[in-house]
Amino acid sequence: MRLQKADTEATTAERDRQLRAGCAKFISHHRQRSPRETLAALSRHPLAVHPPDQYGSGGAVGELERRVVALLGKQAGVFFAKGVIAQQCLARVRSEERASPYIALSPLGHIDHDEANGLEYLHGLRPVRLGRHGPFALADLQRVRQRLAAVIVELPLRRAGFLLPPWRDLERISAWCRDNEVPLHFDGARLWEAAAGYGRTLRTVAALADSVYVSFYKGIGGLGGCVVAGTRDCIDALEVWRARQGASLWTAYPYALSALDGLDRHLSRMPDYVRRARALAARLRREGICQIHPLDPTVNAFQVILAGTGGELKQRNRDFAARKKVWLFNAFFESPFEGQAIAEIVIGDAADDYSDDEACSWLRQFQAMSGEGRGRAAIRRRVRKPTARRPRRRNT
Question: Are residues 64 and 178 in the same domain?
């Protein structure tokens, strides 16, 4: 039964991928490229003629580490193929340094929300969860009584609607960590977007933290991978745990080339993506097309609250894509309110292919389709298949 369910889900996922690939426009993220197009572009990158790295040493990986370290103003950096491993290793290193298992973080952050309790099961660490519906503040930290190994702040906090803490609050958290000699780490999977949202340089934002993690497959549009940057001692200890976790690929140059290409293409455009997201959100709110959160996006992304269950909305999204050749939403998440679900709009260069007028029209049509679905269901309930009548028994 479980295998049958897994097979069904895999088949559905493949159909969705095919349906999405057949669309001409996408409301979120960057333009879609086929593997052939991606590999051809990487082969043209200037660093593609250099010898490949070996276990992350040299080649395009070395150049990527140097570039990120320069952008963030840190002493050193190390490449990981997977961010989950990178940040769990970082937390383990801080725990050993401070002789404490306690890691302060948000329960809505990726580390606590999406990694199946990896900190606890793999490393024996103890999350100290701060805040509830948004980024935690200094007052939350001041109430902690455990000896903390590290404080982790996700910038922006995706599950809370891609919220950034106010800049002054982030400065206060940084100062508290410094005064109490607790290492501060930024989960910067979207740090590129966060810096643009704050209207500050990457170096200015990164200066508030002792270590910073950045991802390459979200806003940068790379194949995958990440870099953690910090002091030389921290990175040396991190490389030991990377080896222990088996996270050193024999060679990782495709990831590095795609990350360097993404930095070249998207980093300078992050402020434009943030402005576009804010303009579109304001239009959706002003015209009452759908509910959004936050009302004024802090980065290039925001949540859309829609009527319907996740299953209903997924099917409606498929129907819309089949009709219009437009892919609206990648996923739908549970909402705390009955009869509603949450989707996301994340502005990337795919938004170059449509206007805000078009986006508003798409979302109006998508909303209207909920009425169509209810109408079809009502018709199915009213139209019954006639049942065969039994012949009436005659008296003999």
Answer: yes
Let me know whether 310 and 219 are in one domain: no
Residue 299 maps to a domain: yes
Contact 362, 23 (CB under 8 A): no
Q: Which residues contact 235 (CB under 8 A, 6 or more apart)?
A: 75, 76, 77, 78, 228, 229
Among 211, 230, 264, the domain boundary falls at: 264
Cα–Cα distance for residue pair 173/389, rounded to 1 Å: 77
* pLDDT tens track for 99-147: 999 999 999 999 999 999 999 999 999 999 999 999 999 999 999 999 9
Measured on CA atoms in the order 390, 392, 395, 396, is the torsion positive or negative?
A: negative
**Cα dihedral value 11, 13, 16, 18, nearest 10:** -70
**Burial class of 144 by CB neighbour count within 10 A (0 to 12, 13 to 18, 19+):** middle
Burial of 226: CB neighbours in 10 Å, binned 0-12, 13-18, 19+ = buried
DSSP state of 54: B
Give helix 232-244 / helix 83-98 axis angle, nearest 10°: 120
Whole-angstrom Cα distance, residue 300 to residue 363? 18
Q: By three-state DSSP, how is residue 51 classified? A: coil
Q: 228 by DSSP, 3-state: which?
A: strand
Structure tokens at 323: 């009709």
Model confidence pTM above 0.85: yes
What span, in angstroms and rounded, lies between the C-alpha atoms of 33 and 45? Answer: 16
Tally of domains within the chain:
2
pLDDT digits (tens, 9 = 90+) for 145-167: 999 999 999 999 999 999 999 99
